[in-house]
Amino acid sequence: MAFDGASGPDEYSALAAGAACAPAVYIARISLRTGKEIRGPIDPRELLVQSHRDRHPADIAVQFLASRLVQFTGHDRAGWQLMRRINRLGRLLAQAMGGLTGSTAVERGVKHLIGVPDTQDYFRFRPATPLGNRAVARRLERLRRMARARLRRRGATPRLQLLVTGATGFVGQEILARAAEDARIARVVCVLRPETVRDRKTGAVMATYTPAQRGARLLRRLRISGASARKFRFVEGDIEQPGLGIRPAVAARLQTALTHVIHAAASVSFDDPYAASYRANVLGNRHALAFSLGCQSAAGSAFVAHLAIETSYIHGRTKPAIAQETAFVFPRNFYNNYYELTKAMAAIDTDRFMIERGLRVVQLLPSIIIGNSRTGNNRGDTKVVNAPVNAFGRAKQIIDHVGRGITGVPKAWLLARMAESFPGDPSAELNLVPIDRVVAGILAALTAPEAIGQHIHLASDDRIRSDVMARIATDEIGVDIRLTDPTLFRTVAAPMRSRALHTLNEPKLARAAAKLTAVFSAYGEWGQPIHDVGNDVRILGLSLRRPNIEHAFRMLCRHNRYVQQFGKIRDADEIARREAVWSAAIDRIEHTTGREVASIPPALFAHLLARAIDTTTFTAARSHR
Q1: Residue 574 burial by Cβ neighbours in a 10 Å radius (0-12, 13-18, 19+)
Q2: What's the pLDDT score for residue 418?
Q3: Which residues contact 102 (CB under 8 A, 6 or more apart)?
Q4: Fewest CB within 10 A of the end CB: N or C in the chain?
């Protein structure tokens, strides 16, 4: 882990006191002319890639040309070089015009006219510590030694006691399901808020559930019962409150008993506003770190380590450089959304707690998490990659319904042309990782003291391109997905599509399409980061053979189609029931065919599934009961 700079904890505390959620607490603006910091507030929007593109027709044209060059050459570097050369030529032209007229105003005017960015500054992260790399390394090794000693005291059967935040989330549920089967884990305490259920139309309160009631429902959905269920305890709390909102008496008992805190709670909505992302991802993280520090320093503490679940996308738009596990710098090409930005800010807080305050921390950085690599099961998740898959499926259903009559055929054709297009450069690569790989890494880290002080990417070395995702989704959903250049899509096609869908009286489809454009047009661009991997194998001992991402994405499409009906099935209990039936059907299909189910062509899979499941009731077929 590399650190540079000179600001330390005192400066950090002063900044934090002055502006509670300001990016300037974590990020400095540096003058290109003087090399010194430019003091003052930083607007969070400045840190997103959206604020640095599509500002001028010439800028749009250059991005489009660079995209075509990348497609022709197959190398992102060619696109970056083209954009740099064009910008250099534009700056030289502006300087020449300024020199001829003797006016800097003319130079700036020419730059504005031809769309050349007039950059005067850049951003960099404030360092976590003023210490040098050697001093940091010594501190981290000391923390590892302490963790080894704590684990040795617990013997060959350590009987670990965990506290988990975010237990009702996608990752949290999978942690609970695997912890129930893990003989090393004796107790899991989950922090939950009470839940109030309101009528969607009137807002009237229909029911209120305590954390214990919510936990009991969660265990039923996860099919955890008997002795395994007795491992779990659910306490009231809120990550956005100091002390995680846990009552002091309860917290005091936990702090002497817990061996680990797994902070898995986060807002993973790519379109959340900055304030909401900050509260969930930065403030919640800070409260979890402080709670763990209290556990570690308590008299008679059994505490081993805090596990921070971050994201590999804290590296932002780093291309053409590789996003390394050992380095963390502000991305030259900014962040795609506030989720990435606030998770990066939270990672800086984590480094500060570890190095300056001596908290033993493991930092685990998953990439974009999808369902189980074999079944696609995702506990009902509808976010991130699930969202466009479900949108395409719903669009197909609408098109099929509209196109049944003769008069509906033209409308169906128009809807298909608009709804089945998606902003994506064929060369754009996403790093997807199945949930089973992520949770295997989290649980392995519990007894891997060498992981303390390390950034560990839980990611794939088998990235998947936009054109491959479009082909698989076309095969599995039955839609003809057409990739459109993201720049032209955002600036030209998307506004036209929105107006046309409203004209065709499809406002819901228009809203869904607009949201998908806003969220995914950035991830569909060429120049996505390449994440270095290796610590998951070297340090955590995970299998060198990482999941087949094409197979995993295919099963995501099948799961969303058959189990969730493209997002129509929302009831968590029903999804849990259907996923159990689905898993059993996949077992039977693979046993009967002797093939991995993801390798079976869509039509044959549909035939085999219909023999295994009554698709009307989503129950096992009579012959398999």
Answers
A1: middle
A2: 64
A3: none
A4: C
| Contact of 350 with 469, CB cutoff 8 Å | no
In the chain, domain spans: 9-124, 142-371+432-458, 571-625
Confidence of residue 581 (pLDDT cuts 50, 70, 90): very high
* DSSP codes joined into one string, 82-114: HHHHHHHHHHHHHHHHHHHHT-HHHHHHHHHHH
Name, of 410-414, 462-466, 546-550, the range with top average pLDDT: 546-550
Cα separation, 83 vs 105, whole angstroms:
24
Contact indicator for 179, 185 with CB cutoff of 8 Å: yes
Q: How many helices (H) and strands (E) does the chain have?
A: 23, 21
Q: What is the pLDDT of residues 123-154, one digit of tens each?
A: 999 998 899 999 999 999 999 999 999 999 99
Token representation of residue 599: 């390798």
Q: Given this model, what pLDDT does residue 623 score?
A: 67
* Chain segment 518-547, per-residue pLDDT in tens: 777 788 888 888 899 999 999 999 999 999
| Residue 47 DSSP label | G
Q: In what order do the strands lie in the sheet with 260-263?
A: 232-236, 185-192, 160-165, 260-263, 305-309, 361-366, 455-458
Identify whether 602 is preceded by a cis peptide bond (ω within 30 of 0): no
**Tokens 């919510």 map to which residue?**
214
Round to whole Å and give the CA distance between 396 and 170: 27
Q: What is the DSSP letter of 504?
A: T
Total residues belonging to the chain: 625
CATH topology of domain 142-371+432-458: Rossmann fold (3.40.50)
For residue 320, whether the previous peptide bond is cis, meaning omega lies within 30 degrees of 0, is yes
User: Phi, psi (5° rounding) for residue 309?
Assistant: -95, 105
pLDDT given for residue 319 in this prediction = 63
C-alpha dist (Å) from residue 359 to 164, 306, 612: 17, 8, 51
Would you say 87 and 52 are in contact if contact means Cβ atoms under 8 Å apart? no
